[in-house]
Amino acid sequence: MATSIKPRIVKDYDKLPLDVQGQIKLTYPAGFAGSLITYINAKGKVVSALPYETDDYYYLVRMTLEEANNIVENDDDFGDDGILRDDFALQEFEGHDDVDDDINDIPDDMPEEEEDDDDV
Question: What are the distances in angstroms from CA 86 to CA 20, 25, 52, 89?
């Protein structure tokens, strides 16, 4: 049985397509801060990120603990208690499939992890 390795996408939360942001909210309805992981990037720096996996991709969404808290605090989809609102509707995000544009730009010889050019 052949195993397929999912491409890894490393990106900032605000640069993700809205439909992916919506799916992440559903995956982490109690906020992101408690689910952050740390890893060493290609430049040897320790980076914190939120892991998120789809059928086709494995995302590491770069964010610090402070950024994770600020995203939830400033997002109207989360209530004052930091929990995703019950009336959150993912259908408003459907139809936005921008991630494919990013994937088409990945060269075939790219290592497992793709990094944005932004500072990490």
Answer: 19, 12, 21, 9
